[in-house]
């Protein structure tokens, strides 16, 4: 069976370690890695004085991880710099926040070269290599320069930016050209894929782009697919029905004292639209005073990328705004907005999702958004909550039965909230059923199989057996 090598900036803890942040991606990748005796390679998360290239191997629950420490300058220029100060804002339509520093671009190239050099001895000619996300776009090219001829796939978890914004990146052509060294590129949605093709047609006039998603540029051929990631639905449903989740649900209901819960769960990131969301809730309370003291918004937002200034700024803004909303509407017996900066284990999250009447998943831009899918999976089929979802999340392409909203408009958010709060049971059930059918069908195992089947296509050996 073809051995799989997964490469990503962060290496998730192997299944079984019981970490609170264990997501569906780690579950699915771990099962494929275990089946093929594969390796998950990436950054350890540690900083050292000088890069050594020494690999730390660990084996846990049948999954081998191989991690390297990065030096402080690498972390600053590659991770905090090019990945999170340049590419992340640019890929999420925030060119105003993007910083274009030569040292960042240099650090990005250096770390990608270091990753390639370090992982090279691990690669055998039979391996299937799968690189993830914007941190590692040039890795395939770095591996090719070192003689690797294996099938190499790349999956982008973020949106692909619109053409005119990407042109603001001084090295845009070099970045995109590196992608032609992969055999297959996966995007979360058709919208991101179309945006990529538009860039290629405009900027690489010499490229031959066929209808079936094959691009030829000189000697190189790459296929492109839209392949939306899912969650481990079965696992999340089981988690939502666990005793721990039930306890969290009951605790939450008790604290609500008969009020309807609206919930939001996001990394504290400016792309998640939290400011606009808070304004939408404020608008609901102002325009529909009948909901005052009848609802409660719980926003869970653990801090993320705290060394980056734009993240410090958004945190300050949300601190002020949440204080303002509570100051304006709270009574001695009611706090309208519960704003919590910490993470929860998956069962507790699922229990809180199940206790809520509606969820606000309203990013301004998002590659996919897994919280939307987790929210649906956690619901009680007899009494499901309503998903309010941004039109600008990749998930909106698959989840049309949600209440789709423009996340920039507080009025639209307030209207959707009012609609959700008064939605009859039969409508909630029929919307949920349609959403759940998709979340079950296109789960993380389906995603993994679809991508790997396409990557391994040439030699006709199906990789479906990789997936449990
Ligand atoms: P992103 O990858 O941009 O953070 P996603 O919505 O695709 O956004 O994925 C976020 C993942 O992190 C989901 O699995 C979600 O459940 C998890 N998560 C987010 N916030 C928390 C939290 N406070 N506690 C636990 N898990 C969280
Ligand atoms: O989903 C996008 C993503 O950037 C992942 O690649 C990443 O692991 C996650 O968000 C959290 O971000 P970070 O790894 O920077 O904490």
UniProtKB/TrEMBL annotation:
Keyword Signal: no
Pfam families per record: Glyco_transf_20
Highest taxon, organism lineage: Bacteria
EC number: 2.4.1.15
A GO MF label: alpha,alpha-trehalose-phosphate synthase (UDP-forming) activity
SUPFAM superfamilies per UniProt: UDP-Glycosyltransferase/glycogen phosphorylase (SSF53756)
Enzyme class: transferase
Record's keyword terms, sorted: Glycosyltransferase, Transferase
Similarity comment text for this entry: Belongs to the glycosyltransferase 20 family.
PANTHER family: BCDNA.GH08860, TREHALOSE-6-PHOSPHATE SYNTHASE
Protein name: Trehalose 6-phosphate synthase
């Amino acid at each position: 069976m073809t051995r799989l090598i997964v490469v990503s900036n962060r290496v998730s803890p192997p299944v079984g370690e019981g970490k609170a942040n264990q997501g569906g991606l780690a579950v699915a990748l771990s099962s494929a890695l275990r089946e093929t005796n594969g390796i998950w390679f990436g950054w350890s998360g540690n900083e050292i004085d000088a890069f050594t290239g020494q690999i730390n191997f660990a084996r846990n629950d049948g999954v081998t991880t191989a991690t390297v420490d990065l030096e402080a300058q690498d972390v600053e220029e590659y991770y905090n710099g090019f990945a999170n100060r340049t590419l992340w804002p640019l890929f999420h339509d925030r060119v105003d926040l993007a910083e274009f520093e030569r040292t960042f671009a240099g650090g990005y190239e250096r770390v990608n070269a270091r990753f390639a050099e370090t992982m090279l001895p691990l690669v055998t000619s039979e391996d299937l290599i799968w690189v993830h996300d914007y941190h590692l776009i040039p890795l395939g090219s770095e591996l090719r320069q070192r003689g690797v001829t294996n099938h190499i796939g790349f999956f982008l978890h973020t949106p692909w930016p619109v053409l005119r914004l990407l042109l603001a990146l001084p090295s845009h052509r070099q970045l995109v050209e590196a992608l032609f060294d992969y055999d297959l590129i996966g995007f979360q949605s058709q919208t991101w894929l179309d945006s990529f093709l538009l860039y290629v047609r405009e900027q690489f006039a010499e490229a031959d782009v066929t209808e079936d998603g094959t691009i030829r540029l000189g000697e190189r051929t790459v296929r492109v697919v839209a392949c939306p990631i899912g969650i481990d639905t079965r696992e999340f449903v089981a988690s939502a029905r666990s005793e721990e989740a039930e306890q969290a649900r009951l605790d939450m209901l008790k604290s609500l004292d008969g009020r309807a819960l609206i919930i939001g769960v996001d990394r504290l990131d400016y792309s998640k639209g939290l400011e606009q969301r808070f304004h939408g809730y404020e608008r609901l309370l102002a325009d529909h005073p009948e909901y005052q003291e009848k609802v409660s918004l719980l926003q869970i937002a653990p801090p993320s990328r705290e060394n980056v200034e734009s993240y410090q700024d958004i945190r300050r803004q949300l601190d002020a705004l949440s204080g303002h909303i509570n100051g304006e509407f709270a009574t001695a017996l009611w706090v309208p907005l519960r704003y919590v900066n910490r993470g929860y284990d998956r069962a507790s999250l699922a229990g809180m999702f199940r206790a809520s009447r509606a969820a606000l998943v309203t990013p301004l831009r998002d590659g996919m958004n897994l919280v939307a899918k987790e929210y649906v999976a956690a619901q009680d089929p007899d009494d499901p909550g309503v998903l309010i979802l941004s039109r600008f999340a990749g998930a909106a392409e698959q989840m049309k039965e949600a209440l789709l909203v423009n996340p920039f408009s507080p009025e639209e958010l307030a209207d959707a909230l009012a609609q959700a709060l008064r939605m009859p049971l039969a409508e909630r059930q029929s919307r949920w059923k349609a959403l759940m059918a998709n979340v079950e069908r296109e789960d993380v195992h389906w995603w993994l199989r679809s991508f790997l089947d396409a990557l391994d296509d040439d030699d006709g050996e199906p990789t479906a057996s990789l997936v449990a």
